[in-house]
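Re: that chain you flagged

S.,

Sorry for the slow reply, it's been a week of failed gels. I finally had a moment to sit down with the sequence you sent. For the record, here it is as I used it:
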Amino acid sequence: MAEDVKKDLTAEEIWTTEEGERRSIGVIHIVITALLIGIGFVVGAFGSISFPLGFGVNFFWTGIVVQQVGAIWFGAWGVIAGAVFPFFSNAIAGTPFYVSLAYIPANAIQAFLPAWVFRRFKLDPRLKSGKDYLYLFLTMVVSSILGALWSVLVVLKGFDLLTTDSVPLFIWGWFGGNVVAGLVFNFILMKALSGVVIRTTAFVKKWWA
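Prediction finished late last night. Pasting the structure tokens below so you have them in one place:
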């Protein structure tokens, strides 16, 4: 019977702390953060090396999957990992230290926005309805637009690393590289694995536990 209840959790119940339920920060969350940083480094570096445009911008950035899915599942721990790991994966692509550092706000918002929207609107990470799919897609698009504008207009143009003519290409590269990779992998991972993840102690209902 208990197993049946778990299987039939509503979207709101997924994010709601049950009466008597105790959730606290544990070693598992530190481990998850480290794992996300490690996985993000590998998949992010793959995108940066395989489909490069320059300065860590590329046409198919698989790191976005770790940023967004990780933050939806693991809250602030996923956001932290999503903001940190690109710093290391960009280094593999030869991105200057100061540029990678200045990218952190963009990477943080790309991880934070989907995580916030899913919690704010009590969306189902198992993607049970059209609304879940729509909101995930919209957060992918909006967060990538914000990330692209910050990274290209504020960072790269601000440091005088781009010509005016190359700005549209880099904005599209950042935005398109994120959204295309997200379309390929975000939906698949969340649909396939969220049902398992939400039953683990590592899953974060609020932001930290």
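What I noticed first: The two ends are 26 Å apart (CA to CA).

Talk soon,
D.
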